[in-house]
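Risk register update: the risk of archive-format incompatibility is retired. Evidence:
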Amino acid sequence: MKQNKDLLLAKAGLVLKEAEAQGASQAQAAITLTEMGLTRLANSIIDQNVSERHAKVRILVYFGQKSGSVEFEVFEDSDIKKAVTQAISLAKISPDNKDFRSLPTKKAYPSSFDVDGLVCEETYNTSPELRAEYATLAIDTAHDIDKRIVAVAGIVQNISTERAIANSLGVEGYEMQTTAITDLTIMAQDGSEETAGWCSDARRDVRDLRVEDVARVAAQKASDGFGMKDLAPGEYEVILEPAAAAGLLLYTSILGFGARRHQEFMSFLRDRIGEQVFSEKLTMSDNALDQRLVGASMFDDEGVPHQKVDLIDNGVVKNLVYDTMTATKDGVESTGNHAKWWGPAEPIARHIVVDEGKSSIEDMVSETKKGVLVTHFHYMNPVNPTQGVLTALTRDGTWYVEDGEVKHPLRTLRFTDAISRFFKDIELIGKYFEFLSRPPIGLVPGLKLPSFRFSGSSKE
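Archived output:
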């Protein structure tokens, strides 16, 4: 297994040297080297097998409070120097950022963090033949569940990612991760009715990937999906499988706990730190250092060490997550949550850990009088971010539950509801699922909520 630590740090050093030579007051370089092998399934055949290698370089330079940044995928020294010149040209014509004081200074990374544990050589060296073997296993397993299964689609993938971050104030970080993923959508047909089931799993070690179990679960959901009926809009009890709960909690994190959104009056939790907003059964933290997570990590996107941040403690809003700029503005320390994800860089809690309970999904069903069981949501978006209102569609398996029994599958539903309303009460919290996921989702159990607003269905 080849690690490119020296190469990536040398390229980052070149950025800093060139920025200094051109008069920048501060500079930062973030380099990501990604190698990916992908086997794609469609219509129950392997229809694509590819490998890719990408080197992404992000340059940020400052002249006082003026900044310029560029992002590119070239790796030659001459191109890097040209990119630095471009970033500096942008900085010189940009307005001052009055909130900027400095890039982060060097801080020690946690000595107890097992950096070597992030990497599995077998995953790094995953062959196309092994991915094809896993894909074939998924196809055969699914078709053995039910003769009405007509198509297995999805991916088997292995990824290795190296990150190097350095700045002109002495920050220098490097880490490598490996991940193996299987994500399957399985379709079934009986006459004119079509159904779908979904499941996924992610592991550091490709040998631990639960391909057969994922295929079995997704195929069974498709098989059980025949006989769909409509459900009238309204408030129902809801049983959220872990993937569905995780989607809602991710948006809770993004819209509620980032310091930038608080400072710009966009957070639905603005001025509610210390308040009991959620059910006392809900305790949630952001903890990239928890090495149970497939995507555990040592530092954020500006090289600041990660730390555990308590977000919700028995329903009480506890803390925000910060990066260097937002922390400086509030007079506190960065929590190591800087993220250049989408849109503007901002602090985001991307490694969510929710305390688990003792209930199974079956327990939740048995305690439901009139409700809906949801596999996961699709196309989730904020309707009113400052009020925490979300909307999304159910997908790949939704069922009506009555008097403690699953009665029948449901056609696609849309929910529109406010986070602070539907998480105000939680009846049951489940155990962690047998399958794992990549960040931004961490460890999230299933949940049973007493009230959830479905605003429409595919009938309308």
